[in-house]
């Protein structure tokens, strides 16, 4: 005879409920946090014992300090509300003892108050897909006698109120805006009827949608007023022109032979009279500057040692293209260029490259190296930073849209030059072209950085 197994309910229903809410909200916003909350939720369901605080959840897998603190904060709010409700119930009981006829009314009143509290707990993010569905259903409710809408009608109407596609999933994701409907039905804000299904607002959903519609209308009015004020101010001050800086790849001007000085310094050309001073007082200038005469040095591409450990024969292929290459441990960046004279003195050219494959870029964003590496590049003293991003067709740990947004921020906010290539072979061609270009330009004109930065 087999033993009967009794399946116990989740010993932590509140934590389970809150994690589900946060996961659903993340799905609604198309945030990667949905995976974090889903993993934490699965881990919580496997744990057989009750937990009294978010801090105790830290022992579970996928529970970090942030989720634990979120649970503690939510638990404190819940306990505060519960203490208020308990006080209300006790007052009701005392009053009911003195007047038994009003007992039913007291209970109904307290139930309504609790319902209002629950309704306020969930408010969708502005211009999210849940927000758009509620607004579309509410507008249909006030304009038509039949408050029900089919899926196709709702999709087309809701799209006007959200930035998320209601029809197609985002790149790297399986979710569309329509996935939010299951969340709204689960929270009893929308009711699903019939087959084929039609959707309408519940009483709670109608109340929430009405408030959202009021906020939506007010925000539109504010935008209109702001637009009118801005147009008036522009008309009154036509002499002032506001432009946005466009981030373009660094421009290199090739000087003509007439413009080219006889001697070039570390940071700026030295005029003939300054060269005479240098010859008269060499010790004074040698402390601060390193002087290279034109056509007395070679341009060499430095490759970081880490780049030679990735399995691709990048150094071998660069040398086959006639590029002077050296492998060296670089403190920052993956590639840079130096000029070396016959005395083996070196200057760094003002260009440095950080190379990232798409999967490496995703990993660096997740573990925080992405921002740390950009900060170090900006602090190294080399003015022209190039972010070289190589395509990678395998599975990525982050959506492609997130990676493209990170690259865009790197160009616009950090003022880097961002270069996309189809793969490492195209990157080699790009590096060889840059090396040839720098060799032609800097053979007569040199602007470098001190060698302590490499």
Automatic annotation (TrEMBL):
<keyword id="KW-0233">DNA recombination</keyword>
<dbReference type="GO" id="GO:0000727">
    <property type="term" value="P:double-strand break repair via break-induced replication"/>
</dbReference>
<keyword id="KW-0460">Magnesium</keyword>
<dbReference type="GO" id="GO:0048476">
    <property type="term" value="C:Holliday junction resolvase complex"/>
</dbReference>
<dbReference type="InterPro" id="IPR036388">
    <property type="entry name" value="WH-like_DNA-bd_sf"/>
</dbReference>
<comment type="function">
    <text>Interacts with EME1 to form a DNA structure-specific endonuclease with substrate preference for branched DNA structures with a 5'-end at the branch nick. Typical substrates include 3'-flap structures, D-loops, replication forks and nicked Holliday junctions. May be required in mitosis for the processing of stalled or collapsed replication fork intermediates. May be required in meiosis for the repair of meiosis-specific double strand breaks subsequent to single-end invasion (SEI).</text>
</comment>
<dbReference type="GO" id="GO:0031297">
    <property type="term" value="P:replication fork processing"/>
</dbReference>
<dbReference type="InterPro" id="IPR006166">
    <property type="entry name" value="ERCC4_domain"/>
</dbReference>
<dbReference type="GO" id="GO:0005634">
    <property type="term" value="C:nucleus"/>
</dbReference>
<comment type="subunit">
    <text>Interacts with EME1.</text>
</comment>
<dbReference type="Pfam" id="PF02732">
    <property type="entry name" value="ERCC4"/>
</dbReference>
<dbReference type="GO" id="GO:0008821">
    <property type="term" value="F:crossover junction DNA endonuclease activity"/>
</dbReference>
<dbReference type="GO" id="GO:0046872">
    <property type="term" value="F:metal ion binding"/>
</dbReference>
<dbReference type="GO" id="GO:0048257">
    <property type="term" value="F:3'-flap endonuclease activity"/>
</dbReference>
<feature type="domain" description="ERCC4">
    <location>
        <begin position="300"/>
        <end position="393"/>
    </location>
</feature>
<dbReference type="Pfam" id="PF21136">
    <property type="entry name" value="WHD_MUS81"/>
</dbReference>
<dbReference type="InterPro" id="IPR047416">
    <property type="entry name" value="XPF_nuclease_Mus81"/>
</dbReference>
<keyword id="KW-0227">DNA damage</keyword>
<dbReference type="GO" id="GO:0006308">
    <property type="term" value="P:DNA catabolic process"/>
</dbReference>
<keyword id="KW-0479">Metal-binding</keyword>
<keyword id="KW-0255">Endonuclease</keyword>
<keyword id="KW-0378">Hydrolase</keyword>
<comment type="similarity">
    <text>Belongs to the XPF family.</text>
</comment>
<dbReference type="GO" id="GO:0031573">
    <property type="term" value="P:mitotic intra-S DNA damage checkpoint signaling"/>
</dbReference>
<dbReference type="InterPro" id="IPR033309">
    <property type="entry name" value="Mus81"/>
</dbReference>
<dbReference type="Pfam" id="PF14716">
    <property type="entry name" value="HHH_8"/>
</dbReference>
<keyword id="KW-0540">Nuclease</keyword>
<keyword id="KW-0234">DNA repair</keyword>
<dbReference type="GO" id="GO:0000712">
    <property type="term" value="P:resolution of meiotic recombination intermediates"/>
</dbReference>
<keyword id="KW-0539">Nucleus</keyword>
<dbReference type="InterPro" id="IPR047417">
    <property type="entry name" value="WHD_MUS81"/>
</dbReference>
<dbReference type="GO" id="GO:0003677">
    <property type="term" value="F:DNA binding"/>
</dbReference>
<protein>
    <recommendedName>
        <fullName>Crossover junction endonuclease MUS81</fullName>
        <ecNumber>3.1.22.-</ecNumber>
    </recommendedName>
</protein>
<dbReference type="InterPro" id="IPR027421">
    <property type="entry name" value="DNA_pol_lamdba_lyase_dom_sf"/>
</dbReference>
<dbReference type="InterPro" id="IPR011335">
    <property type="entry name" value="Restrct_endonuc-II-like"/>
</dbReference>
<dbReference type="InterPro" id="IPR010996">
    <property type="entry name" value="HHH_MUS81"/>
</dbReference>
């Amino acid at each position: 005879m087999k033993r009967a197994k009794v399946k116990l309910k989740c010993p932590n229903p509140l934590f389970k409920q809150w994690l589900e809410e946060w996961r659903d909200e993340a799905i609604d916003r198309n945030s990667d946090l949905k995976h974090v909350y889903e993993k934490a939720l699965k881990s919580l369901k496997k744990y057989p014992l009750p937990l009294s605080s978010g801090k105790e959840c830290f022992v579970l897998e996928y529970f970090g300090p942030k989720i634990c603190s979120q649970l503690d904060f939510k638990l404190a709010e819940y306990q505060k509300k519960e203490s208020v409700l308990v006080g209300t119930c006790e007052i009701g009981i005392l009053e009911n003892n003195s007047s038994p006829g009003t007992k039913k009314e007291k209970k109904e009143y307290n139930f309504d108050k609790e319902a209002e509290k629950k309704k306020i707990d969930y408010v969708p993010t502005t211009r999210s897909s849940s927000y758009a569905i509620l607004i579309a259903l509410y507008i249909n409710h006030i304009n038509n006698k039949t408050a029900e809408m089919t899926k196709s009608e709702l999709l087309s109407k809701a799209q006007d109120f959200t930035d998320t596609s209601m029809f197609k999933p985002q790149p790297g994701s399986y979710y569309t805006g329509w996935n939010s409907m299951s969340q709204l039905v689960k929270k009893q804000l929308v009711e699903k009827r019939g087959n084929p299904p039609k959707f309408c607002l519940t009483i709670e959903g109608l109340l929430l949608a009405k408030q959202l519609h009021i906020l939506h209308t007010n925000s539109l009015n504010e935008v209109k007023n702001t637009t009118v004020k801005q147009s008036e101010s522009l008309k009154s001050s036509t002499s002032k022109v506001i432009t946005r800086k466009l981030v373009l790849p660094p421009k290199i001007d090739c000087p003509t032979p007439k413009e080219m000085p006889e001697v070039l310094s570390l940071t700026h050309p030295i005029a003939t009279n300054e060269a005479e001073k240098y010859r008269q007082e060499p010790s004074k200038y040698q402390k601060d500057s390193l002087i290279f005469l034109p056509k007395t040095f070679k341009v060499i591409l430095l490759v970081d040692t880490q780049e030679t450990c990735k399995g691709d024969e990048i150094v071998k292929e660069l040398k086959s293209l006639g590029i002077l290459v050296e492998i060296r441990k670089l403190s920052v960046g993956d590639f840079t260029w130096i000029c070396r004279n016959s005395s083996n003195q070196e200057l760094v050219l003002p260009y440095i490259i950080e190379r990232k494959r798409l999967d490496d870029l995703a990993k660096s964003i997740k573990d925080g190296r992405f921002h740390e590496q950009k900060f170090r590049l900006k602090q190294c003293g080399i003015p022209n930073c190039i972010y070289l991003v190589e395509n990678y067709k395998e599975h990525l740990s982050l959506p492609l849209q997130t990676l493209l947004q990170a690259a865009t921020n790197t160009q616009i906010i950090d003022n880097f030059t961002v270069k996309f290539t189809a793969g490492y072979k195209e990157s080699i061609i790009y590096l060889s072209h840059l090396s040839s270009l720098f060799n032609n330009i800097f053979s007569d004109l040199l602007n470098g950085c001190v060698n302590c930065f490499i």
